[in-house]
């Protein structure tokens, strides 16, 4: 028998095992530029026991396993570069338990952040990590995702209290627990979070929740130059106001959004700021931010506390990448993801804009100014060798600039396929320790091969 027949026999349901060409194609690629590769078969498990059975089978036969969530990966994590079995975890999408008094929920990996937040509304709670896409909780944990809320709530690793994980040989293990902190032994939960499916497959997650703030206010402030915006952001962070989000977008990106959305936002370097907390704290914080912006050469200042109007104000930030994609619909996208010390962010963005213009390309550049993470979204023709070379040159310059200033090649997207070579430049000899951990957990190398390491 072949892989298909063997797996059908093990999970007892031919409808959740498929070799359909359309389904294989859907599981061959992520959202970015990496070359697609179809799996040999796609499996939709319902339980940890089924995941265990598939992994034990694959491990015995050295068949690659690639976990798959919402498909919103930007670094090719979900591409089965060596074929084999793709495990689509979206049928494991139950919220198993909500414990509002403990500020936690127990979920299966296929639950998306929007599904979870909808279930949490009646308790006055929410899950704070927002990477933009409606990604699955399992996928977000696999890449240690973060996004716009990280300045206040931290990254995915800060939210995952415990895991149920299926190892390469089918063994099911549990890490962490329901306590908000622990000093018991090695932090295996933290090790698995961000491992990109290379150490095990998540089948259950215990996640930390937050209370929905009493009041929220969004501020859009435009400045005479990028440096003034970044310096003002630093002053706002020092002021101790109740920051929920603080983002920076350059003027060329605002112009691209205006063309895409037919809007007329002022084309200037812009800060998007969200304050959240008690009504009094937010009101006082807004006035402090207003004063700091005025002192920082702000040329336009707008606030909104209505939920619909707040969403409209965030449009320019959230649609930046879409604006570039819409302008070049037949081209592939590369999104850089470097993170630098906060004091270096304005200069890094300026250097990146100059670099992009020197190469005659168009890019959206925007950043999480609260943690020094910024993205450059570049559109290019993957079939044009000269253009690919230019894109790779720009990417290398951006990463090496960040590394030279104590930064990292990826703040939230992960290594996947696209940043493997930079991992060695960033971490040097310690990559051998990482490889040793990989070998310990996955001696046959079946778990998401071709990712993280060269």
Automatic annotation (TrEMBL):
- One Pfam family name is FAD-oxidase_C
Its cofactor is: FAD
Q: By its UniProt entry, which InterPro entries does this protein fall under?
A: FAD-bd_oxidored_4_C, FAD-bd_PCMH, FAD-bd_PCMH-like_sf, FAD-bd_PCMH_sub2, FAD-linked_Oxase-like_C, Oxid_FAD_bind_N, Vanillyl_alc_oxidase_C-sub2
Q: What GO molecular functions are on record for this protein? A: D-lactate dehydrogenase (cytochrome) activity; D-lactate dehydrogenase (NAD+) activity; FAD binding
Record has Cell division as a keyword: no
> What does the record list as GO biological process?
lactate catabolic process
EC number, as in UniProt: 1.1.2.4
Report keywords, A-Z. Answer: FAD, Flavoprotein, Oxidoreductase, Transit peptide
Location of the FAD-binding PCMH-type domain: 35-212
Q: Which family does it belong to?
A: Belongs to the FAD-binding oxidoreductase/transferase type 4 family.
Q: What is this protein called?
A: D-lactate dehydrogenase (cytochrome)
Q: Which organism is it from?
A: Anoxybacteroides amylolyticum
Tell me the classification of the organism that encodes this protein: Bacteria, Bacillati, Bacillota, Bacilli, Bacillales
């Amino acid at each position: 028998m072949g892989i298909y027949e063997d797996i059908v026999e093990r999970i007892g349901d031919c409808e959740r095992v498929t070799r359909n060409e359309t389904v294989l194609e859907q599981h061959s690629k992520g959202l970015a530029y990496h070359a697609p590769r179809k799996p040999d078969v796609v499996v939709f498990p319902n339980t940890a026991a089924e995941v265990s059975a598939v992994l034990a089978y694959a491990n015995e036969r050295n068949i690659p396993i690639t976990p798959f969530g919402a498909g919103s990966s930007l670094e090719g994590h979900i591409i089965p570069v060596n074929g084999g079995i793709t495990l689509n975890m979206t049928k494991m999408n139950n919220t198993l338990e909500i414990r509002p008094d403990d500020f936690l929920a127990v979920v299966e990996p296929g639950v998306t952040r929007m599904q979870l937040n909808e279930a949490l509304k009646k308790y006055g709670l929410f899950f704070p990590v927002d990477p933009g896409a409606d990604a699955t909780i399992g996928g977000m944990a696999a890449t240690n995702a973060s996004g716009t809320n990280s300045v206040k709530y931290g990254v995915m690793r800060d939210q995952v209290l415990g895991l149920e994980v299926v190892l390469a040989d089918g063994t099911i293990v549990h890490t962490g627990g329901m306590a908000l902190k622990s000093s018991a032994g090695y932090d295996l939960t933290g090790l698995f979070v961000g491992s990109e499916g290379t150490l095990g497959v998540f089948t259950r997650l215990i996640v930390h929740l937050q209370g929905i703030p009493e009041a929220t206010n969004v501020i859009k402030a435009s400045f005479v130059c990028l440096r003034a915006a970044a310096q003002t952001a630093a002053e706002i962070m020092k002021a101790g106001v109740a920051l929920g989000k603080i983002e920076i977008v350059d003027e060329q990106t605002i112009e691209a959004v205006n063309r895409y959305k037919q809007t007329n936002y002022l084309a200037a370097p812009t800060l998007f700021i969200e304050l959240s907390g008690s009504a009094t704290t937010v009101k006082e914080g807004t006035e402090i931010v207003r004063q700091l912006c005025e002192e920082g050469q702000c040329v336009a200042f707008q606030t909104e506390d209505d939920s619909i109007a707040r969403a409209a104000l965030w449009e320019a930030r959230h649609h930046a990448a879409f604006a570039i994609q819409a302008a070049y619909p037949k081209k592939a996208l590369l999104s850089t993801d470097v993170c630098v010390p906060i004091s270096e962010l304005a200069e890094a963005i300026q250097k990146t804009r100059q670099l992009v213009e020197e190469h005659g390309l168009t890019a959206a550049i925007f950043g999480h100014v609260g943690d020094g993470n910024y993205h450059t979204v570049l559109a290019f023709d993957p079939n044009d060798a000269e253009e690919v070379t230019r894109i790779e040159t720009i990417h290398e310059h951006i990463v090496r600039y960040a590394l030279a200033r104590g930064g990292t090649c990826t703040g939230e997207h992960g290594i996947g396929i696209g940043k493997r070579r930079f991992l060695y430049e960033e971490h040097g000899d310690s990559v051998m320790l990482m490889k040793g951990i990989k070998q310990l957990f996955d001696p046959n190398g079946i778990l998401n091969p071709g990712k993280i390491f060269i």
